[in-house]
Sequence to fold (119 residues):
Amino acid sequence: MYKKLIIIGIALAFAFCHSKKKTTAVKPAEKTVVAARSPLAVAQKRWPGATDEELAQGKTIFETKCTKCHGAKKIVTRSEKSWLHEIDDMSPKAHLTPEEKEKLTRYILSYREANTSAD
Ligand code: HEC
Fold:
């Protein structure tokens, strides 16, 4: 008789622990990682008011108008100074408007800075 009660008690304890575990085993909310070096964060630091849309447009310009004569050049391997020079050089070749050139510049420089380590 007592043996039975003990078994039931143990079973209940298990059931209780189990159900408790279930309800508390909710994953903690994913931490929102605010990437300090996302291209947008980099761009906004430099050009307050820079938008994701503008960077996306710069990327499109880079991938379409800047690949007509050669492949997409690697962004991270070139210094910022060199890029500014290349962009000045290449924008007329690609017939970019001043606005397109600005978007391209913001895209390239912020992508570069966000994807290189120190500097
Ligand atoms: C009308 C053709 C043409 C267009 C359009 C063009 N380029 Fe070029 N680009 C060249 C040529 C020619 C070279 C020299 C040969 C090479 O490096 O492929 C060159 C070289 C480069 C180089 C490498 C220079 C070096 O010393 O290694 C970069 C970077 C570059 N272009 C970026 C761009 C960007 C950014 C755009 C868009 C604004 C662009 N190019 C559009 C023709 C073009």
In short: Residues 65-66, 68-70, 73, 86-87, 90-91, 93-94, 96, 104 surround heme C (CB under 6 Å). The chain is about 60% helix and 0% strand. The longest helix spans residues 2-24. Helices lie at 2-24, 39-46, 52-64, 80-90, 98-114.
